[in-house]
């Protein structure tokens, strides 16, 4: 995006955020009629919560301390609070409209309507808290998804390949040392031949990653055939080169519209993320251009962060594409939206001879909460056609 586009996007998001929080503040203020002494504290908290994310993210670029980190965490959680509190308050207001035609609220409230409003407001707060805490716990417990694929190609004598894959780690203030250590342990425990990362390894600004020395954990990743990544949109939102250089300096080879032949057996291609078109002012390579110097008689694996235009990949000699980006909405009910946007919002699909896997991702963006799905790492077992079978089949 150009600076003007970033500015407009920022203005739109900030405007929506302010309007939603004004709505919640107004309805919360009404719910506190029975306890007027709490109202000033409630308003002060709502102002802090509304602007804590932007203040925290801005301040931590020049100072990284418990205050900026706390503001960042509060603001991140608050996005989820906004969603689930607003959904409940909207349902209550629909009930109030129905009450105009079919009165039922006064019967439920009894003689003390102001106390009834407080109880309803407290119930909304309690339900929101429970949902978010459950989603936060879920976000900290990734699953291991397993995929077994047979590829009808020879791989220079290699019979099987064990891949540990991940996308959307979002290393930064929220995904810090503990979560990074958990990622490294889970990937290494899979005993992979190779580790592949399908973009958004870092969460925008590389500063918090450096200050927390998260690269020290990345250096502990173990795979005899190497560790490779493609770029994601967040690497470019964070400036591109600083993030990519950091990964390279800590043992992760970032493939940028380039490929590598591994063990004379198979290729790994890493596509530049679509966001590079805006950040670098030049278009990324098309699929045919990426394959120009590749022997597609050998197995070909491609990393492409955003799972768009799957038809342009299928049938071109690419055997497996790994993507992420969608988080499958991360928060319910956004998964219904990503299902409409993407041909594959999560999981597996085969188109022709090409196998696709779109990961829900390991980390989170914004709120450290997942209510729509589980975070994941992926174990992919590839089996290749061996020479004996090739001769039997006359190929």
Radius of gyration based on Cα positions: 24 Å
Q: Strand arrangement, largest sheet?
A: 1-12-2-3-4-5
Reading the helices and strands in chain order gives HHHHHEEHEHHEHHEEEHHEEHEEEH
Q: How would you classify the quaternary structure?
A: single chain
Shape: elongated
Q: How many helical elements?
A: 14
Strand content: 15-25%
How is this structure best described in words?
The chain has 395 residues and is of the alpha/beta class. The protein has 14 helices and twelve strands. The protein has helices at residues 3-31, 39-59, 66-101, 105-109, 113-139, 177-189, 207-211, 215-218, 233-237, 241-249, 276-279, 287-290, 334-341, 387-392, and strands at 143-151, 160-166, 194-198, 227-230, 253-254, 258-262, 266-270, 300-303, 320-323, 347-351, 354-358, 376-384. It is elongated and about 80 Å long. The two termini are 49 Å apart. The model is unreliable at 388-395 (pLDDT under 50).
Topology readout:
Layout (H helix, E strand, L loop, with lengths): L2 H29 L7 H21 L6 H36 L3 H5 L3 H27 L3 E9 L8 E7 L10 H13 L4 E5 L8 H5 L3 H4 L8 E4 L2 H5 L3 H9 L3 E2 L3 E5 L3 E5 L5 H4 L7 H4 L9 E4 L16 E4 L10 H8 L5 E5 L2 E5 L17 E9 L2 H6 L3
Parallel strand pairs: 1-12, 2-3, 3-4, 4-5, 7-8, 8-9, 9-11
Antiparallel strand pairs: 2-12, 6-7, 10-11
Helix pairs in contact: 1-2, 1-3, 1-5, 2-3, 3-5
